[in-house]
């Protein structure tokens, strides 16, 4: 089941905090970079996030989540994490499709590391196109857009 959650709820925040640690560690290993923001973020920082969180649960177990922010008619995907035991089961696609139900949106934006080929493949498969690249702390990021 997909639903929005209140990240200020400590129980929900702790579940997100745990899942993002294990999921983003996989990305860190792929891209050889351990300063990914969700890996160094504190629980308190997560609780104070201004992002909107959507979760995919199965029998009260958190399987995956996506967070986003809306600015004008743009949705920026901030985080997307799936439990390692549930990768390649279509959960990321279900979470993304949930975002597509938001009304009056013109485009979706997302960025990921150039070396994160699983994420890049996912975004391209879901209709995103690369717009540009940038470098932060010697890490090359690829920026994507999906126009509606």
Keywords:
single chain, 148 residues, alpha+beta, Aminopeptidase, 5 helices, 33% helix
Q: What can you tell me about this protein's structure?
A:
33% of the residues lie in helices and 37% in strands. The chain is α+β, with helices and mostly antiparallel strands and 148 residues long. The protein has a single domain, classed as 3-Layer(aba) Sandwich (Aminopeptidase). Strand 6 and strand 7 form a beta hairpin. The mean pLDDT is 96.
CATH class: Alpha Beta
* SS field, number of helical segments: 5
What's the CATH topology name?
Answer: Aminopeptidase
Low-confidence stretches: none
Average pLDDT across residues? 96
Described by strand count, sense and barrel closure, the largest sheet is: 7 strands, mixed
Q: What oligomeric state do these chains adopt?
A: single chain
Give the total of beta strands.
Answer: 7
CATH A-level architecture: 3-Layer(aba) Sandwich
Q: Which percent range fits the helix content?
A: 25-40%
Q: What structural class do the secondary elements suggest?
A: alpha+beta
Query: Helix and strand string, N-terminal first?
Result: EHHHEEEHEHEE
What gross morphology would you assign? globular
